[in-house]
Amino acid sequence: MRGPRLFARLLILLMAFGPILNVSGAPQSASQQSTANSSSAPAPLQQQSAQQLATPTNPKIRPVRLIQDTGAAGLDQALRKLKTTARLLQTTAHPDDEDGGMLTYQARGKGTTVMLMSMTRGDGGQNKTGSNLFDELGVLRTLELMESTRFYGTELRFSRVADFGFSKSPEETFQKWGKEVMLEDMVRVIREFRPDVVACAWSGTPNDGHGHHQAVGIITPEAVKAAADPTRFHDQINAGLLPWQVKKLYHRASRGSAEYTVRFDAGKVDPDLGVSYAQFGVEGYSHQASQNAQDFVVPPGVSWRPYKLDMSTLPKTTDTDGHEQDFFDGIDTTLPGLASRLGDEEKKLPELRLQLVEIDKDIDAIIQLKSAENPKLLNAIADAEEHLQIVLDQVKQSSLSKLVKYDLLLPLLIKLDELGDVRNAMIPSQKTDTLFVLKPGQQMITPGETLTLHLSSELRNEKNIHLRALNGWSILPGKEVGEYRLQVPENAGLTRPYWHRDDAERQTLHEIDDPKYATLPIPDYFVVIEANGSVRMLVVSDDSKRTPIAVVPAYSLLMEHGSQLIQRGQTKSFSADVNVRKVSDGASDSKVALTIPKGWKVEPSIASVNFDASGEKSVHFDVTPLASAEQDTEIRAELTDSKGKKYSEGFSVVTREDISTFYYYQPSVQKVHVIDVALPKQSFKLGYINGSGDDIFPALQQLGLNASIITTEELASGDLSKYDTIVLGIRAYDTQEAVRKNNARLLKFVEDGGTLVVQNNQQVNDFNKGNFTPFPTTLSSQRVSVEESPVDVLAPQDAVFQYPNKITAKDFDGWIQERGVNFMSKWDDHFEPLLACSDPGEDKLKGGLLRAHYGKGTYIYTGYAFFRQIPAGVPGAIRLYVNLLSAH
Fold first, then answer.
1. Is the link from the previous residue into 553 a cis peptide, with omega within 30 of 0?
2. Do 781 and 822 contact (CB within 8 A), yes or no?
3. Termini Cα distance of the chain
4. Which CATH number does 679-886 carry?
């Protein structure tokens, strides 16, 4: 996270010279502020103190470096960066859009400083690895992309916009996100990072497909233009983010296209990586497992990555065929080339170019020495740092204008940091990256606690280690050699996202809780200690992942289910269980109570909590609603500890073995949805086979259906005839071999008189090759993305729309995030389409709900997005779904 740290350092330097320059040339009143400064924007950065802006960010989120970033390979790649000032930004819409092969080639192969900006965190997508959806999925995909960028060798940024599912047009995307919001966030990143070149992953045309992709392709050139305009987003300029002119803008061209300006062979093998840039990039990309990215394979050989030039401020850089050799053709990316930024002010620092030439020679000497075993290398690095610091001081003390000074100081500070990276590359990773906690498996601490630390074995053998805790923490010697006591302040910040949504199912923008972290992947609330005044080390747990220690509240409360479905008129009580986690080692005398709607009853009214050794407890409450309850409502849980302090939110640990760890917070609230729904006869029995990212089953149980999970063993050899209906959860064929293997048993269940409801699968080709349906069908990627799209009931008098609920047009109101996906495009005449709908301006699609009678039973396929609607308590979707379960 070098960008914000350097920006903070640079801002402190500039503030020493007085107020930030109003580069438009005149004072600006509030009425002259950019119209982009809407209420949805983060608080202006200028409202923060210099100390806040200077808070150091921590670049080592995962403390164990890749093997390729250590030893001779790591040193070699660190040295490559010293000879170039080139900076490249790629803009994309989602995690998994990026060109990992190109990014790896530029960052690791050429030493370019590269940043990837994904507009969304992928929080509206589907999840192939679990049931986490919406903002919790966004945290997971953030961690996945962070891991990918570790391999690419790039920095990473995000905007405030939230993925709201598939969109077929940029117009819908702009309407939901707000074009100015997108523009403001991208301009912020451009002005902070100050790239020479921007390479958008998308063209902004219908060829991009997804409306989010098209929107990013459209907004990127507008952001490049706005970033250079001192009249746009003036709050950024007041905060120190001065205008920046990108020199060249490209967009990614289609593979194999002849319409390109420049292309890169990412298939070249890098000796430091041991594989090609494309292969190493795919290794990083594979960590985006929630999107099945682990299935991608890049064979050895040529792997061209073409890009088309859209804009350039430079004289012609193409040859007679209209081609370039590199993004940076025509741009002087040498260190002495920085002197050209003096422009008309060259006379104020006439010796700058010569001094930069000398520093460049120092760097050449470092590269010649190269080997970490060469004792002269450290001296050469020190010489270069000393000369660079002299130039930095001269620039700081010069009479250069603020803008010129800014544009010189930032790359010089970066070069100073890169020299430090070269030095660190010579040191084994454990010496620069890690401390251990004493308690095995501990990875969380709470404000006010004292933590006992043991230095890693490598550091313990070092002499004269001086440690300093950052951010107001205290560190004291312990009882043994290498042991220390770390005191956590009572007001320590929690390790949590700096963004949130109150209603993740409907809000399309994240609210920013801490503006100084805006655009960063995650905030730097990890525990960091400084050794000998320069080397920063994460405090980590002594586990296989060396998980960074996090600061969390003493208690976490989460409702067992985030939503509860009840029938209108219901007087039967339901369970409202609260999962409580005690993190601190202090007194455990605590009580939990629920806040319920007026007139409802809860038993017990207050529950005392006694924790076992695990520190976890499920607290059970029975809630009885009023029979007259008509409106959706909510139940809130609150814990009061022995000191009277109250807790009313909880966190989930988001992690996986191959990625880092972070925390998703939510209030301890259970939404109660009052549904006017009739259920099938009491003897009805339902069997459910869970899919991936599927929370339908518990909602069906809440409604009172006699439903049970069918295990793998039961599916293979059990008596399926005891069920009236069997449901396959979403992507069951995609993710479960047992379902594919036992499909014949499922069809025999139908043939013998049962009802089988199959929900959408995403791996279209595999599904079609499997011939899983009783009669021929063709699954497709057809979808209806606008959830408000009108739906036609093709056979309104059919029993499926009459029993046990009469379905009308009103039942398609209030749906969230898409009507459906993976509709059938073709089907045998035995199938009957039951619904039709389409996105605006498109032909009606009838393949979203098909029914066929097979033998004595009924087979139903649906691509409608019930997996989102039912947990969200959408009444009409629930009523229709119950009818499908009841069909025969």
1. no
2. yes
3. 59
4. 3.40.50.880
